[in-house]
Design goal:
By secondary structure, the chain is α+β, with helices and mostly antiparallel strands. Helix content is 34%, strand content 26%. The chain is built from 7 helices and 9 strands, in the order E-H-E-E-E-H-E-E-E-H-E-H-H-H-H-E. The strands form 2 sheets. Strands 1-9-4-3-2 form a 5-stranded antiparallel β-sheet, covered by helices on one side. Strands 7-6-5-8 form a 4-stranded mixed β-sheet. Helix 1 runs antiparallel to helix 2. The radius of gyration is 21 Å and the shape is elongated. About 3% of the residues have low confidence.
């Protein structure tokens, strides 16, 4: 099964522009579907007549929708929420490279950005004192690389301030991103980080420009009837 989900089913990702037609097709294939919105506004589940379910997780929760609305209206509301104009900070970091940007409007436009890299050498296969010296050198390189990423994030996000960003999206690799959490300059920005982490290749401007495709999608846990 492609993209299996823990607890059963599989994950699919649908851009907001396609969600209404996707829900309509799901309902048609399974004999109709009724929506249920959780109290936190973090998910909407469409349950079909044959038992199939589509548990939709929109970006930037919570989503506020009328629980009594029909499935078509709920799908339209979900799509509108996902596609709404926002000011979103994006911070991608991997050991040795970073990309920071701020997207505005709908569709999202990259309004400010900064990318960069710092050399961090791989692990040494040598042993003894040489290996220890190499490890210390690599650790120092990693510290310098993460500091450069933090400096860039503080500069780019600082043009907007914490109140000027609706949300922050993190990506790259989790270990490197976690290494930025102790930087007091980023504390208020990282407090706005969404739960959706973007696993991306080496951060470059082209990768940064493509992130709206990932942070705007509706993630759907799809289960089929037994």
């Amino acid at each position: 099964m492609k993209n299996p989900a823990a607890g059963g089913g599989r994950w699919v990702e649908i851009p907001p522009e396609r969600l209404v037609s996707w829900v309509a097709t799901f309902a048609r294939r399974h004999g109709g579907a009724g929506p249920a919105i959780d109290e936190a506004g973090a998910a909407v589940t469409f349950t079909a007549a044959d038992g199939a379910t589509a548990e939709c997780h929109p970006p930037f929760p919570p989503v506020r929708l009328a629980s009594s609305a029909e499935s078509a209206a709920v799908a339209e509301g979900l799509a509108a929420h996902a596609a709404a104009g926002r000011t979103v900070g994006v911070l991608l970091v991997r050991l040795g490279g970073y990309a920071v940007g701020v997207f505005t409007g709908s569709p999202p436009r990259l309004a400010a950005s900064k990318t960069g890299s710092r050399p961090v050498h791989g692990r040494s296969a040598a042993g003894g004192w040489s290996q220890q010296r190499f490890a210390r050198r690599r650790e120092n390189q990693a510290v310098i690389a993460l500091r450069a990423a933090a400096d860039a994030a503080a500069e780019v996000f600082g043009r907007y301030g914490p109140d000027g960003l609706d949300a922050v999206v993190l990506g790259g690799d989790r270990r490197s991103a976690a290494g930025l959490r102790d930087d007091v300059r980023l504390e208020k920005y990282l407090a706005k980080a969404t739960g959706r982490f973007l696993t991306v290749p080496d951060p470059r401007l082209a990768v940064l420009r493509d992130t709206p495709r990932a942070f705007r999608v509706i993630r759907i846990r799809l289960t089929e009837p037994e």
